Amino acid sequence: MVRKARVADARAIGDLIDHYARRGMLLPKPLGRIYEALRTFSVWEEKGQVLGCGRLDIVWEDLAEVGSVAVHDSLRGQGVGSALVESLIEEARELGIPRLFALTYQVRFFNRLGFSVIRKHELPQKIWKDCLACSKYDRCDEYAVLRVLDGVPAVHGAGAPTAADFGLSGFTRMPAPAGAHTFDEPPASPPVNCESEAPGQERHRSRQPTLGAGGRLQILP
User: What would the CATH number be for the domain defined by 2-219?
Assistant: First the structure.
């Protein structure tokens, strides 16, 4: 069953994330960070064991991220990942958040749950909040996917975020490496070998465009 995470679940959540981080499918998350973010996590519990996890991270007034979706190998392909994401979707509804996104290699998995591929620069909140400080910023190969929730009113607030909103008013990135190519659009469709049926399956080798200098997408040769 899906339930909200408890303090006693933190190490099991860490083990699940580490398992996929070692395969290059998730970013590692130190145990201390898991404790700090514990209230954002939901888990799948079966016979007293935590065998799946996922989190809902609010990043702006109308936007939240689905992340850290990981399922134990013994339960892959059995709908556990879908159940976790659906629970996070319902949580977003209750909070009044109309848009959900994820950065993922598992495009078809999220397609089945109503998400569509978008350009990464449509997510400035994520870029200001996390991507600029990420070691993979200049070589990120994940796809951005987005779902707009039916029945959740759009939020009309202060508008698009700025670097200052995330405490980054003095933050700059190094210029793009020489020879980098820029693209205004992501690939028209996911790579043909992106056939995962659940979070955490084999990662594809394609390289995904990312936001580079001047607000354009860049991809390294």
Answer: 3.40.630.30
